[in-house]
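Re-run with default settings, no changes from the original entry. Doing this only to confirm the output is reproducible before filing.
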Amino acid sequence: VGLTWNVASWATLLLEVETLTPIGREAGQAHGIAVMPGFRFPYRSWALDVSLGRILDPRDTIPVLPFVAFTYRVLP
């Protein structure tokens, strides 16, 4: 589930809630739900997303995970 809110022509607030299921032998040990608030900086044909993810598991020792995504649009 994802939400976006345009706060300016150069910035958008993001909120994503995702399920995490890694591929590999660790799949049975690490899984859960993550909440990722962040910002999107759009331009005409590209966008940069910067967010911090928090896994909703009290046993997890990692407080937040940084996430950066760059997307480029090739079709109009």
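The first strand starts at residue 2 and ends at 8. The two ends are 25 Å apart (CA to CA).
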